[in-house]
Structures
1.
Amino acid sequence: MHSEMMNILRKLRLNQLILKTLPRSWREFYYLIRREFPLIDNNQVILFASSDIKFDYTPRKTIHEDDLRLRNLKISLITTCLNEEKHIQEWFDSLIKQTRLPDELVIVDGGSRDRTLELIKNFENISPCPIKIIQKPGVNIASGRNIAIKNATYSLIVCTDIGVKLDPNWLLYITVPFEMDSEIQVSYGLTCPLDHNSLYSKYLVQPLETIHPDKFLPSSRNIAFYKSIWEKVGGYPEWLRDAGEDTYFDFLLKKIPAKCAFVPHALVKWLGPTTYYSFIKTIWRYSFGDGETGIFANSYWTKFYNYFALLLKLMIITIIIGFLLLIGVAQWLVIIVILLGVISVLYKLLKKNPTSKKWKGWLTGHIVELIQASGFVIGVANRFSSEQRHVAILENELSLILNKYADVKGVIIYLPTHDWSFMFQRPQQMARAFAKSGYLWFYCTNNEKTDFIASFFEVEERLILCHIPLNTFNTLQNPIVYIGAPFHVKQLDLFNSPFIIYDHYDDLVVSSSRFEDHIQMLQRADMVITTSDRLYQEVSLIRTDTLLVPNGVDYELIASLRSMSFEIPKDMQSIITLNKPIIGYSGALASWLDYNLLEQVAKEQPNYEFVLIGVNYDHSVDQCTLLSLPNVHWLGMKRYEELFKYLLLFDVGIIPFKINQITLSTSPIKLYEYAACQKPIVTTPLPECFKYPEVIIGRTPLEFLDGLNHAMQKSKDNEFKKKLDELAKSNSWINRAQLIINLLNDKQV
């Protein structure tokens, strides 16, 4: 262990030394090489196998004979081809022998110049299933697969390659998990080499005994999935030049919280590269593709580093030898030293690899690693071109969206701060309100917590979620760029003459933003908005034209839910059966929540049940004893669509915030949401809450407790409920958005 640590330290020191001596452009390329595309795994993988498969893995489902007779689903089998004259007839033969046949076959030909198309058309006459033949000369594999899937009739897609031999039961087994479990979204099988003694068998195929199902990244020559999940991840990456598309697709699938199946019985035999040249070329292609995406960058860097270090050592030795010869050291002495060095190296190699077979294996292994390292680095060098291709594809998608909504009042781009599905607050609500008001809103997300957007996804009319390079929007003339966090100030130059709205809706501590960025944003913005009086007063010292736009509420949604009957959520049922008053809080469980106040009040009033709904934002709740009380219930974060089923069950809504720098600037959304649910509100002395006489303020724990008792009486007062309803109605998000729209109209934007 000590020697390993010393070796790592030596490498780090060498890294630092090399980086200091390199030109800036080389250092940037180094950082590009080291930038790894992350593998985020949210899948649940289940092993589907018959009882005779001995595999130490759970969860597992056993495939029985009755399961293999299920035929409830229709299947589209898709594949691509290019000059497959040698293999396609054998592939057709193995397809005909399938114990379960596809309901259709979709083949995309990338421009074959041999007899491939002729053989496909001959097979069409005897095919046991309908065939769609699509000719798209020049497309790469990723594009071909996407075209095939788009043209597939059925929602269940099975993907393979012509260069395999299908086991007779392959299609039966790879689809049976979907028949057995309706929640399965992806299924993949096992690829074996046709020639077990080949080089590709050793280096490019993973044996079953080494596979861990939940870590396995399947080849697209043996995978099945629903078209919906393919759409969700944005399909195969057409912007890659050649290979690596299936690994990248696997990474995208892994990020989705999906239930997947590994089926070792679903077997295909790969007709891999048969010559040494074709094997090396395949290794190069795969590594080049990984270089374009950044997949496995750390692994490739280790290989590259080893050979780079060796090259550096040889250069140093060459310089030393040259120096010795230059200063007049006898040539015969230098030659003897070189020979001794060579003999020493050969002796060590022969000791490790005494037989010719081992020697050949050692040499091949190093050649493979060298090809992988160099292929990856060249792929990295080509990354700029691949990113340009990616942006070109996205620009085409953007153009289609803009053409669809050509008559909108304006186009707004919101730069990423919150995932769309995480803590549904001001950014999401403003997006909805503007979209309803006739604007086209692009809501950019970083896919950090809950979102899984691949490119563009229309979540509502005129409201588009997107996860794309921001320079994609450069084709737009004079867009409205809506900024929620000042750290985006450096990205404003990516846009073409934008009208900039800076919505300063949080204290800088919350957004983790620099004060310098905040000042720059105030100076550059065409319109500045704040949410609270405190933020307004601070910003007005620099921007006297600041617009105050507090938070609001989706009044129409909540008002419609009030009149609806719905089933009580399962995690609320046991609380409801206690038949006690429910004091509820909805929001983040964060450091600004006064846990001590809540604990004191909950202890003083054991006849009240306290329900907390929200995300464990910063793990501050883990540091207190509040949740150990029997009348305190934390139910976690709820989707916005489900949230009000809980709030409508409250008797009183509370905002128990500490009074500090953050909360003094807070315009609490939950105040308006409680009011729309017609629930009396008790809060600590937050400045923004003093604006509304309907809100009950508790300055001390005793006042807060008295406020709860008073609120319980008010909860039965219909006249008071009407006042709460009017409060919510006058503070809707539509009204808030209209304040901004009015100013945009005044500025003729």
2.
Amino acid sequence: MLTLLPDPQEIRHTESAYTLTNADRVLMSPWNGEDAAEEVLVGALRRVIGRPPLVERMPLGGVAGATVAVARNERAASTVVRMAVRALQEPVPTAAVWRDGPCMPAERTLARRIPLRNRGIGRDETYVLLVHSDGIAVTGSGRRGLFWGLQTLRQVLAAARNRRVPGLTIRDWPTQEIRGVHLDMKYFFQTPAATEEWLRGLSALKINCVLFEYEDKFPYRKYAFLRDPEAMVPARLRRVLDTARRHHIMVIPLVQSLGHLEFALRHPQLAHLREEPDIYFQACPTNPDVLRFVCDLIDEVMDYHLDVPFFHIGADETGFLGKCPRCARVVKAKGETQLYLDHITRVVKHVIRRGKRPIMWEDIVRVHPESVRRLPRETVLAYWDYGQTCERHYPRDLNPTLARFYRVGAKSHELWPDTLSIFEFFDYYRKQGFDVLAMPCLNYGTLVPNIPSTARNTLKFAEKAAVCGGLGTINTQWACFRLPFDVVWYNYGLTAQATWFWPPADTVDFETQFSRLWLGMSDNTLVDATNKVAEGVGFRARGARPFNLLHFAIMDAELHYERGMEDRRRRGSMPRDMNFTRVLREKLRRLAELSDRGDIDARTAWVEQQMRDALHLLKCARPTTPVGRRMKDLLKVSADFKLNRIATIGILRRAFSVQQGGRPTREEVEAALRTENRLRRDLQRAYSHYLPPGQLKFEMRLLFEGEENLLREVLAGSAASFVVGS
């Protein structure tokens, strides 16, 4: 059975197969632009016939520059092109726009049961792929449609046996206009070469947008001191952007405009822009220099993205509004929301004057959703909520504004209109006249993503965008989780599936599709192994958010600071002088203070078994694609790391607190140090494909410095600190 990813909207199999020969001609209609369409087609044919085919350009039917044929001669090519163009001209249904009313029908049947207005045929992403005994034709409603059709043809050709391509007609179009992935570069920067490889892979999945959050990795000119030592130089950045452009991926830039500015405000040159002297996180919205600074950054970044119609201004999590005396007076007179909107509206209008549509995170206006009406309607609201992974219609409190707007009052949640059942602000924003983007999270996890959690969040949010008329979905990928590209491909693929074809196949079917096409495997072994390696050991102490016992994670950063979470919020989650030894020592101390550690010990034993099971699965896994082999390698070193780190943490717990089993022996500690050194070498080798030297060095510090230093402290202790080994 033919497996494609994402699923096409319509596919009809026929008996009219086509056998490729060395005599085949490739005919492409002329196009005066430049993209990777020919590269994709030639590469796919070369893998089947063993040599690159000759490509000729000549006028063909259909939209100019949007048709390709593979056939023995021009007459046969003309025949298959006519058939494809005729199929393209038939009406194309699209997903329903469902605003409110009674509960939705079953998810999997909704889109097929409701009459739909024709939206797809006018887009330039629709295509037809036809395989007939006379040849193969791909024609699109625009150049992008042709490109996506060739990506589908590449998958069809990969399934050919003895050069025989099965007969079929595919008519296909996307459910969502924007199908994207976010790339946060601040804490975990992957090389431009790895990023280009990632972009080519995304285009094969028909992802058409990436959101670049540059932070200090952009080649700023006016504020050159903001550049990280490994920031992209102009020529390298232009090459990355050109790779995206040639693969029909729109790169939307993001520049933070109020909060999350610690990458800039930590510099003494910009200290005057801070909300308070020790707040690196947030600028002061009433300081006129802040607006000038933000607009300067926006203008520099925008000059690299002049062909993109959108610009993201960030604007989320501004938790320090009203702290400085000047801002406090505004808050007293107008309220926090108006203080926020006064500044953000000026930034929005600056972006609009530059000819772009501003995108902004909506979490601050969500507190008082009626305030959204004060924003220009050109603004696109990026609606994020990573915690909603449950089924619809779960019990909860409803925002009073929504309760009044939808007239539900004190009604039980089972009686609410379905649009309030999950992501309840989405339709409200749409009814206020705003375009909305769904923004789930795809890479939550430690070393590898937690697939069950991220998949549910992705599928639920993509559903909301599909049925409530969203502009699209951009799945967020945060640097704080520090995941290399190749362990996240399952989530990229699921994003593509859920945003192109709706309703998507269930996750069991998707796992099979993904494993076959992306990993070159006949089973789901690597996906199963990923689910096991994703497990970790966390614990809460003193009411804090969970700490990660096995290695440093983003929530552990508060242990670096004297005032804990308060300083972390003010100074940032990843200061450059992070003391990983202090963090680990404090983590072990808080763990020792817990009166009942039985659950943690049981969890640790369970995770240890999960790592052993994962290593057994990986030993049997035989991926045949480069991505699959790299994914296996990353999973193997991650499972080995967690398995052995459990033993190291056990030794440190015994050394620094009274634990059952007594103090560790010198031999145990020395063996643990040797194991940590081996794991460091293994992870460094695996991560070197993705990280530049400075980032790689920091990553090894983050994962190993605390544990190695504490093991050395144990070795340097007095002889009385050790039990003599046998």
